[in-house]
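Handout, tutorial session.
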Amino acid sequence: MQNWWETSWNGNRYQGTASNQIKVGTCQHCEKNTVWIVNKMYYPDNGNAPFPNPDMPIAVKAIYQEAASIQQKSPRGAAALLRLAIQLLCKELGEPGKNINSDIANLVKKGLPPIVQQSLDILRVTGNDAVHPGQIDTEDPDVVANLFKLLNLVVDYMITLPNQVSGIYNTLPTDKLDGIKGRDKG
């Protein structure tokens, strides 16, 4: 639910015409503001990217949101930032974070599922091609939009899902957990 303050850029109170409407909305839940001009949100500037996964680490989320803010103005820039975001994500997942290709290879050795590896490599290769001349058209809005989706999916698979399963698993009775541990030792 939003509380709204409205005016027009000629200084008159908004009279029902959308041609010169300026609105500020304040969320009653989080108390953050949005700024709208003629029914288009200009602040915060999230582009068309989906909201970041709530479990996305803070440093990764900051880069994700920066990429979202420039997605419409510079799709290439957004693709490059998303590549940086997965480099930070690999570091959050326990890798050194110095060489993204090596980090992905290490995660594969640790059992990273192929679908997640492919998602990371799509982000890596597309982000690299955004900075260095390549064959991928990072000016295509659909290409860049898919990168945001992939990053959310990687976070979902690598962070959200394990947290959810672990939380439920740990509610099992202690004797059942001990039995499972015993089974898995031998």
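The second record follows below. Compare its token runs with those of the first.
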Amino acid sequence: MPSLKEFRNRIASVKSTQKITKAMQMVAAAKLKRAQSQAEAARPYSERLARVIANLASAVSGESAPLLLRGTGKSDVHLIVVMTSERGLCGGFNTQIVRFAREKINELLAAGKTVKIVAVGKKGRDQLRRQFGPLIVEYVDLSSFRSINADAAAIVGEVIVKMFAAGSFDVATLFFSRFRSVISQVPTAAQLIPAKAPEGVKPPDLKGAVYEYEPNETEILEALLPRYLNGQLLQALLENQAGFYGAQMSAMDSATRNAGDLIKKLTLRYNRQRQANITKELIEIISGAEAL
């Protein structure tokens, strides 16, 4: 049985941990509000750009289409871009993304495809390295960015475009977590190359009007597709950031409550042990007095 001093030390330690988790919860809650606003504000732009790309893409085909749109025409080599956080203490947030990506990787490998992995975020890299270490060809470290912005997305986009230009892969797919609510983040896959509008996105309704483009659709797409790629990456980074803070806030709230429950249990055991010690001392005193 631990001594009273050990109980007091343990209670003090748990109380210190509880203060830390409570502070982290409050910080995550404050950052979540801003991150959620950024993610939600970026969605209309991303959706509108996807509709424009879908409309322009419908007017081009074959060899006239830009390379980012038509791809290589093969699907032998797949690039899997796994986007997670740089930090932990966020429950199962990163694990859900990695598990979703791992299922796709195993499916591709079983089909005889070649898989390459680009890890964006330290936590995803560390988890994937255990099983798919040789497949990780690039790690993008964004820990130097205080907040996610277009520059961060451009760094990831540059890595992907360079690999595609070098003929390193045929199809690129992005895995990230879409923010739904504080307690709900949905692991999501989006095809980056060949460029493809997300499911449910339809070309804008022109109401019968006929548009002539200057320059032509191909040249416009050549200029828009790199921006569309970076836009998808930025949207994914913002969604991930909001999801991370939501998951961290929930995890720290649970940790704070668990620490409170543990303090109650330890305090109860401390009081019982203290009472037992007092009772034992009284018995010894009474026994000694009766012996006299």
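Points raised in discussion: The two ends are 32 Å apart (CA to CA).
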